[in-house]
Amino acid sequence: MINDSDLERIQKIQAERWFSHPYAMNILKELELVYHQPKISGAAIGRSIIGRSGAGKTTILKHFINEHSQDGKCPPLFIEAPSWPSLTDLLSAILEEVNDFKPTARTAKDKSERIIRIFKEIKPSMIIIDEAQNFAEGTSKQSRSCINEIKKITNTTSTPTILAGTDELYPVIQIADQYTRRWRPIKLESYPEGQDFVYLVNAFLADVDLKKQKGFLAPTAYSAIYKYSGGVVGLIKEVLINATTNAIEDGSEKISVKHIRPILDVD
Asked: What is the pTM for the complete model shown?
């Protein structure tokens, strides 16, 4: 990599990569418990994965799906929740995920019945609904309508469901105790400043071939990275990608505090 052109090195740094850091592994462990639970008639227990924007929820979920894409059964279905709690839009998104675009299912009732028929045939191992905090954007009645429909599909087809979103998802699953039990919340934490944070930064830098980058960064550099990322994994990556790019472009080939700049305001 070091002998590549500057542009090629920057492109490789920007490429999506998987980091098996401890907080991500904890989420994957919870997903595995849901995935491998015994099949029973009725309610399958899922989880709510909750974390700040940029915490890496979607990356973890897609890594999990990829890991189970060759299991010999229908892999987990990945659906992005509509931007507001529209039952019709939610059901349409599920049908699109299973490549069913037939116009025969027009009403929400028609769509729901079609989903259940299809699920009983293909037997999906799991349904993952990302951006589920969007269910909180409407009224309580609209939120209940979407969540109750997910619950009905889960009960009827014995398919566990994962909801993933930001903190705004909490009020949705706390509307009723049965929701909280069905989708027990698991928090994807941000990293506190300290040794674990340093390990995470170093794990990223291990894949970065700067010509003069050796060993640890200066303590002030770690502090600056934390200041601009708040310990949020996605923002840590963005800060480091930009810092590495800056170090390549100015020819220094080594990350210093001057290369570490803010991405956005962090609480």
From this structure: 0.89
